[in-house]
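Please fill in the sequence for the structure shown.

STRUCTURE ENCODING:
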């Protein structure tokens, strides 16, 4: 915890400054040089045989007796069945996939070719970049269509992230799931994409040693969605799961939710590429908190005015920040120039969006208790990443659904573990000094 001190007396007012540098999810920033990739795989489908993708050029997907695929998937000709003139910029064959047939299983789902060595928190390769391109197989809405795509290892279903593609009335909804520090899953709606045109989505992931510091960036059609996510490492590290944090070397394409009934529908995928290496990872938001006081010294019973400024020095938008002043017991909140959220003894400013280079400032006035003893009072300032809604109760997982549709019988999301708790990011302090007693009256 970083601290500053303010002595309470009658000295001339003077600012005392503390700077707390806090990065989202305690991200470790690395040098900007990009190391050469250690492994790269690129897969297009023009030279694949029509039919089941299983066994073709490193792809695998479960197949029942008689060679029947476990899921509704297969290599198809884009023209004339889906788009009579093909899809400009892409090949004439694609891999079609839907959740017409679905299962809560993992090992028999569809996996892209594996890169070697895998990307891990402890190995030489800590950066994973994978992207895929797709278009809706039909030009009209396909109710119930919902597939999940996850970075995985060795085709085990040990996922480190999840992105859902859900066909809704307005277009293809893109949903990203990450975790809080306590291992709870959080749903992020990042985009709604138009039908009938192709889109490219990229995972850019950096794994860091230690807990709660991995970084996931999502790019859609070459544009950063502007938010940084965590991997699922917190889920695996939580005592309720108590599992090793997985490596990453493949993408899992999973059909685990029901409710879709259209034959020859779904999404057409045009290819997938994956790279592992030792690069620095995606550009990150970097919220920094400055705190000043209005005076160097104040008497007991006096007022202290705090100025708290949060600035995003990073290159991505910081979202859903909670910047809190933790009032000590020797101080009482008086007023603030912004509406603050009360969390215990904390008074918190909710910042929904903070663009790169943008700052947000609020002022808070506190009164030192008249009976406060001389000495230092700690007044902490926290930057908490993620203003999340209350976690759902323990029990069966709640599937991701589109409003107005019946819930799917299974879900891509494991069960919840505990309610998230705020993470302290740093603090500050203020001192109290009682004034000297007046000299005795002169007599005689």
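FILLED IN BY: designer on duty
SEQUENCE:
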């Amino acid at each position: 915890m970083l601290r500053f001190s303010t002595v309470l007396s009658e000295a001339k007012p003077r600012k005392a400054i503390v700077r707390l540098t806090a990065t989202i999810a305690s991200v470790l920033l690395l040098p900007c040089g990009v190391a050469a990739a250690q492994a790269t795989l690129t897969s297009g489908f023009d030279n694949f045989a029509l039919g089941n993708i299983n066994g073709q050029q490193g792809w695998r997907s479960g197949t029942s007796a008689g060679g029947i695929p476990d899921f509704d998937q297969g290599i198809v000709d884009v023209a004339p069945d889906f788009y009579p003139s093909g899809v400009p910029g892409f090949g004439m064959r694609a891999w079609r996939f839907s959740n017409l047939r679905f299962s809560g299983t993992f090992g028999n789902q569809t996996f892209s070719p594996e890169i070697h060595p895998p990307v891990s928190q402890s190995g030489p390769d800590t950066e994973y970049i994978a992207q895929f391109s797709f278009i809706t197989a039909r030009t009209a809405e396909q109710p119930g269509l919902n597939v999940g795509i996850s970075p995985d290892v060795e085709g085990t279903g040990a996922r480190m992230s999840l992105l859902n593609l859900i066909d809704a009335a307005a277009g293809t909804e893109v949903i990203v799931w990450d975790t809080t520090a306590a291992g709870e899953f959080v749903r992020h709606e990042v985009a709604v994409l138009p039908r009938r045109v192709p889109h490219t989505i990229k995972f850019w992931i950096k794994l860091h040693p230690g807990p709660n510091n991995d970084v996931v960036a999502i790019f859609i059609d070459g544009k950063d969605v502007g938010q940084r996510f965590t991997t699922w490492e917190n889920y695996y590290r939580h005592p309720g799961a108590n599992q090793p944090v997985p490596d990453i070397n493949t993408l899992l394409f999973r059909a685990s939710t029901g409710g879709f009934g259209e034959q020859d529908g779904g999404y057409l995928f045009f290819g997938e590429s994956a790279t592992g290496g030792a690069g620095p990872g995606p550009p990150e938001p970097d919220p920094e908190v400055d705190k000043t006081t209005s005076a160097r010294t104040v008497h007991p019973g006096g007022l202290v005015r705090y100025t708290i400024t949060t600035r995003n020095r990073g290159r991505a938008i910081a979202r859903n920040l909670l910047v809190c002043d933790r009032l000590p017991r020797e101080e009482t909140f008086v007023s603030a120039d912004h509406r603050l959220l009360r969390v215990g003894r904390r008074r918190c400013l909710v910042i929904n969006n903070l663009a790169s280079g943008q700052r947000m400032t609020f002022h808070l006035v506190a009164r030192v208790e008249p009976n406060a003893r001389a000495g230092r009072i700690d007044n902490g300032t926290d930057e908490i990443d993620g203003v999340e809604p209350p976690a759902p109760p323990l029990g069966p997982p709640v599937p991701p659904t589109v409003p107005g549709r019946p819930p799917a019988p299974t879900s891509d999301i494991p069960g919840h573990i505990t309610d998230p708790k705020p993470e302290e990011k740093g603090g500050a302090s203020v001192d109290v000094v009682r004034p000297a007693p007046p000299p005795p009256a002169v007599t005689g």
